[in-house]
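quick one
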Amino acid sequence: MPWRALPGQVADPYAVWLSEIMLQQTTVTTVMPYYERFLKCYPTVQVLAAAPQQEVLALWAGLGYYSRARNLHACAQKLAQLGGFPSDVEGLQALPGIGAYTARAIAAIAFGVPVVPVDGNVERITSRLHAIEEPLPAARRQLDRLATLLNDDPQAREAPSDFAQALFDLGAGLCTPRRPSCLMCPWRATCKAYATGAPQRFPVRRRARQSRNDMVSSL
Ligand code: SF4
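structure w/ iron/sulfur cluster:
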């Protein structure tokens, strides 16, 4: 993926931010040509900040959720005022259009802060590692807390950028919603959902539990 730094390179916060905003609610394949067009037109955050908003929205056309494009432009203007990206989660999260997940992703990938960005994939991995029976969405707070501990390991904390991106890859490629490839997973030995024999059952969703209760009560 073009926004990822190669081994030995330092990730560019502008590239990480742009890709993370574009990837919300859509796929890598869809984002790729938009990302490349944006970087060609706006090679730096300062150039993006100076562009007219209508031009930015026109370049975004087709990617949907136009509030993201407006926030992207507002954020670029704020960053141009600040003189660059803050390197901590709190500073990033104070910027327009940057929520908790994106702030942690930029902090970990671009600035090496040992934090875990928690999106749907990471939530699913966490629910499986701990075989959390509490259904979503009620389990969300517990999952977020447990997910922040996923990097509680010296090797992971030494390489926050690699760890965050490996976690994304594990969620997208191995710990998939319907058919997780557990035999290839480095966490198989300690994964509680794998031990149950039905890891795809996690995360438990409220509707599934309700329908089971309905079945029991109708017996
Ligand atoms: S062992 Fe399977 S269910 Fe557990 S984290 Fe790995 S891929 Fe996911």
